[in-house]
C-alpha cells in the first residue's frame, strides 16, 4: 500500500483527499515506478474539475492527481522495450494513473531514462514544460537573431520557452504579471507587465517592425491582443487556445514520445532548458502545491517531491 492524493468526484478543491492504494499493476506498454518527484500543472486541476475528463483513462474514483513524474522502475508490463527495472526514468502517466503518489504507472513509449547528472526534481518538470517549449520553437523554426514574444512568460512553460529561445540566440520579449518580472528578467527576457502597461503599445515600442514569432500561453482576449503584433499570422503558435486558427495562427503540434523527452533532458543537462523551479513541496503538502498553480499566478514550476 502507498499513499496518494487525488479526488473522489469531480469538483473544486473540496473533493481532494489523501488515500491509500495498492501499487498499481503495469499494463501492456506501462512501467510501474516509485515516484521521486511529480510536476504540478494547470491541467491537473482541470482534470479534477471534470472539464477534460476524456484524458482520465476512465479509471474509477478516487483518482490520483498529476500527469508527469520522475522515479525508479519497479516493474514492467508486457511489450515494454528500452526500459529496465531499476532505471531512473521520467515521463507521462497518460492512462489516468496519476503521479501525486508514492508509486504510479507511466506509459512506456512516453517515458525516458534520466541522464546521469540530472536530478529527478528537474526531470519531473520536463514532460510538460520542456517538451512544449521544444515543440513550439521547433514549429516556429526561427533563425538566430529573430524576435519572439512569449505571451504569459512567467509560468513553468513560459519560462521554459523563453530560456530555450534565448539558448537559440533569439531576442525574447515576454508578457506577465508584476510577480513574474524578476524570474523573466533574470534569464534575459525583456518584460512587459500587463497589469501596468498597454501590452500592444509597449511591444510595438520594443519591436517596431513586429515579431518574427509569438508563442501564446494565455489564450482568449490576451491572445487576440498580441496576435496582430506578429509579422505574419501563421507565426503565432498557441499552446492551449484551439481558436488560434481563426486568427491565422497555429496550435502547437505536441510530440511527447521518448525521443523528444530524451532531447529535452539533454537540453536541460546542458543548461539550455534548465527549468525555473520556484517551489518544492513534500507529498503531504500537495494541496498547497496545487492551490498555488490553480490560482494561475504561480511563477515558474512547482514540484512535489515524494521520495
Automatic annotation (TrEMBL):
CDD domains: MDR_like_2
Segments passing through the bilayer: none
Domain spans labelled Enoyl reductase (ER): 11-304
Residue stretches in coiled coil: none
Pfam families documented for this protein: ADH_N, ADH_zinc_N_2
Domain of life: Bacteria
Name listed for the protein in its UniProt record: NADP-dependent oxidoreductase
Organism in which the protein naturally occurs: Streptomyces lichenis
Amino acid at each position: 500500500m502507498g499513499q496518494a492524493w487525488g479526488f473522489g468526484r469531480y469538483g473544486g478543491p473540496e473533493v481532494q483527499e489523501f488515500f491509500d492504494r495498492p501499487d498499481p499493476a503495469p499494463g501492456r506498454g506501462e512501467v510501474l515506478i516509485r515516484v521521486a518527484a511529480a510536476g504540478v500543472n494547470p491541467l491537473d486541476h482541470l482534470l479534477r474539475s471534470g472539464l477534460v475528463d476524456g484524458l482520465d483513462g476512465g479509471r474509477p474514483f478516487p483518482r490520483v492527481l498529476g500527469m508527469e513524474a520522475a522515479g525508479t522502475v519497479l516493474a514492467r508490463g508486457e511489450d515494454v522495450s528500452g526500459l529496465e527495472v531499476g532505471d531512473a526514468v521520467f515521463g507521462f502517466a497518460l492512462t489516468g494513473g496519476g503521479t501525486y503518489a508514492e508509486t504510479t504507472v507511466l506509459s512506456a513509449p512516453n517515458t525516458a531514462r534520466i541522464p546521469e547528472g540530472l536530478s529527478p526534481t528537474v526531470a519531473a518538470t520536463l514532460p510538460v514544460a520542456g517538451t512544449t517549449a521544444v515543440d513550439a520553437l521547433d514549429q516556429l523554426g526561427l533563425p538566430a537573431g529573430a524576435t519572439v514574444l512569449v505571451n504569459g512568460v512567467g509560468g513553468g512553460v513560459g519560462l521554459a520557452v523563453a530560456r530555450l529561445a534565448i539558448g537559440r540566440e533569439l531576442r525574447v520579449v515576454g508578457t506577465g504579471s508584476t510577480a513574474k518580472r524578476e524570474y523573466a528578467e533574470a534569464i534575459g527576457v525583456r518584460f512587459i507587465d500587463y497589469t501596468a502597461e498597454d501590452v500592444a503599445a509597449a511591444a510595438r515600442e520594443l519591436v517596431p517592425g513586429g515579431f518574427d514569432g509569438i508563442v501564446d500561453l494565455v489564450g482568449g482576449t490576451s491572445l487576440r491582443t498580441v496576435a496582430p503584433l506578429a509579422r505574419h499570422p501563421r507565426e503565432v503558435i498557441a499552446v492551449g487556445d484551439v481558436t488560434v486558427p481563426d486568427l491565422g495562427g497555429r496550435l502547437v503540434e505536441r510530440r511527447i514520445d521518448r525521443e523528444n523527452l530524451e532531447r529535452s533532458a539533454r537540453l536541460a543537462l546542458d543548461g539550455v532548458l534548465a527549468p525555473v523551479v520556484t517551489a518544492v513541496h513534500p507529498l503531504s503538502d500537495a494541496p498547497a502545491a496545487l492551490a498555488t498553480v490553480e490560482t494561475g499566478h504561480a511563477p515558474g514550476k512547482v514540484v512535489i517531491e515524494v521520495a
